[in-house]
């Protein structure tokens, strides 16, 4: 029996969500990490704190505020409605937005650490060789910080797969749209369908172990960089 | 003066030793009335009721896996019967403490008409219900939609809360314009607390008989027994009725 169609739908949706969020986070997180690594602005502390907040906040806090803010009476909800996008709770887009915030520190921090580790020197040298900032980013920063980017992508993906509390609060449990694996497992357990729950939960255990094993094998100093 | 203080503290400790605690698991729809009942129970008996709220299905799973609850107020009559037959509940302790009513509710005044025609007109985006697999009020909502012949038409608009409490939360924040909730969540002292609602005729769904049961962990515990008795008394009944439950 193993997994039924609705379980596979949840697996597929979860992978789609995690992939989307990882790509978006690399795009948004890289400039942010770059800025955090190099700036001397007084705002650095404030922005660092904001980025790291999802690490310490209970997901229920994020979920609750997202539900209120993205609702028809909230500022985000007002904005998305004015733009003709409708409301975000109970949609895939809503989960993407929630996950972006939730997984942000797992992507920004490894990249930031990697860029900080490069130091100013290689970029100064590149500049004396007349490399423009854009060139030196691609030819100096990206190759040197590659392990940081790899760690960021893997952790961002894995952490989004493991998301539960935020989705539970803003998702509405819609098959194919917001019913991700963690929620599906919760439903299976609640309905006392332990056999199905075991298959899904066991797969998650195996998945998490494999991802982290690959990360630490390919990239032995990932743990230090992620910290 | 100091001695008097010590005496008072000691007296307090003695009183506490006599007052027991009873751990009660309560279905989400009964959370608000239970709070009031717990207060009255404490005043009347000196025992303290520690209340945990969840969906009936999830509480059932917790009890079967060793949760420390002593009394369970379910949202249906099947779950307590099942617990009794499985040996997790005390035989002969079950009784119906309330009969629940289902309501279609919106936080927006005037959106829901007195006959629920809004379901046919369809001028809404999302309809919230509790998970029908685990929450009796969710199952009742599905039953009503089937009876109206709208189950398929409304399916794409349904959002599910894990319990009736979450269904209510989706509607109250306006994220779902409508939702099937328990009347007890939107009703107080004989009137609607806000928004607009259709109180679904009781003939449209299987009666939601909500049973209480003394669980195996509460057997022989005075506080648990006292609470079971208190729930049958006039004080508790008055509270239960004021939230729109039938008897």
Question: What would your notes on this structure say?
Answer:
Chain A is 78% helix and 0% strand. With 227 residues, chain A is mainly alpha-helical. Chain A has one domain: Orthogonal Bundle (MetI-like fold), CATH 1.10.3720.10. With 247 residues, chain B is of the alpha/beta class. Chain B has 2 domains: 2-99 and 208-242, Periplasmic binding protein-like II (D-Maltodextrin-Binding Protein, domain 2, 3-Layer(aba) Sandwich); 102-199, D-Maltodextrin-Binding Protein, domain 2 (3-Layer(aba) Sandwich), CATH 3.40.190. Chain B has 11 helices and 12 strands. In chain B, helix 2 (31-45) packs antiparallel against helix 11 (234-242). The longest helix of chain B is centred in the first third of the chain and has 17 residues, at 2-18. Chain B starts with a helix and ends in a 5-residue tail after the last helix. Classes of the chains: A mainly alpha (227), B alpha/beta (247). Chains A and B meet through helix 3 and helix 10 of A and helix 3, strand 7 and helix 8 of B.
């Amino acid at each position: 029996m193993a997994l039924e169609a609705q379980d596979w739908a949840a697996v597929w949706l979860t992978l789609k969500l995690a992939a989307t969020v990882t790509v978006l986070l690399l795009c948004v997180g890289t400039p942010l990490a770059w800025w955090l690594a190099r700036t001397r602005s007084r705002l650095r502390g404030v922005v660092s704190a904001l980025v790291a907040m999802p690490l310490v906040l209970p997901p229920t806090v994020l979920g609750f505020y997202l539900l209120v803010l993205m609702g028809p009476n909230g500022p985000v909800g007002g904005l998305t409605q004015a733009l003709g996008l409708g409301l975000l709770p109970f949609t895939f887009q809503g989960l993407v937005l929630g996950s972006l915030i939730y997984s942000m520190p797992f992507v920004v921090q490894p990249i930031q650490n990697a860029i900080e580790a490069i130091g100013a020197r290689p970029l100064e040298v590149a500049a004396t060789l007349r490399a423009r900032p854009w060139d030196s980013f691609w030819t100096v920063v990206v190759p040197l910080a590659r392990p940081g980017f790899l760690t960021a992508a893997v952790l961002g993906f894995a952490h989004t797969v493991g998301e539960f509390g935020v989705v539970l609060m803003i998702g509405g449990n819609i098959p194919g749209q917001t019913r991700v694996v963690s929620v599906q497992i919760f439903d299976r357990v609640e309905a006392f369908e332990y056999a199905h729950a075991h298959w899904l939960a066991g797969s998650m255990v195996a998945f998490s172990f494999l991802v982290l094993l690959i990360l630490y094998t390919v990239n032995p100093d990932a743990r230090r960089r992620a910290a | 003066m100091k001695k008097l203080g010590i005496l008072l503290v000691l007296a307090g400790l003695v009183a506490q030793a006599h007052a027991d605690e009873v751990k009660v698991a309560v279905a989400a729809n009964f959370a608000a009335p239970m709070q009031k009942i717990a207060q009255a129970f404490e005043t009347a008996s000196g025992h303290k009721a520690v209340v945990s709220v969840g969906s009936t299905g999830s509480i059932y799973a917790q009890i079967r896996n060793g949760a420390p609850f002593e009394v369970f107020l379910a949202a249906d009559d099947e779950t307590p019967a099942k617990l009794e037959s499985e040996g997790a509940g005390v035989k002969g302790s079950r009784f119906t403490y309330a009969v629940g009513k289902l309501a279609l509710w919106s936080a927006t005044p005037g959106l829901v008409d007195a006959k629920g025609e809004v379901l046919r007109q369809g001028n809404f985006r999302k309809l919230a219900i509790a998970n029908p697999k685990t929450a009796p009020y969710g199952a009742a909502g599905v039953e009503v939609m089937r009876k109206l012949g709208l189950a398929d038409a409304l399916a794409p608009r349904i959002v599910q809360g894990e319990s009736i409490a979450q269904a209510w939360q989706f509607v109250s924040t306006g994220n779902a314009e409508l939702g099937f909730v328990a009347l007890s969540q939107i009703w107080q002292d004989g009137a609607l607390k806000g928004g607009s609602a259709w109180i679904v005729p009781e003939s449209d769904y299987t009666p939601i008989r909500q049973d209480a049961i003394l669980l195996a962990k509460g057997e022989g515990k005075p506080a648990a027994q006292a609470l079971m008795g208190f729930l049958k008394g006039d004080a508790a009944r008055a509270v239960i009725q004021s939230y729109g439950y039938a008897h």
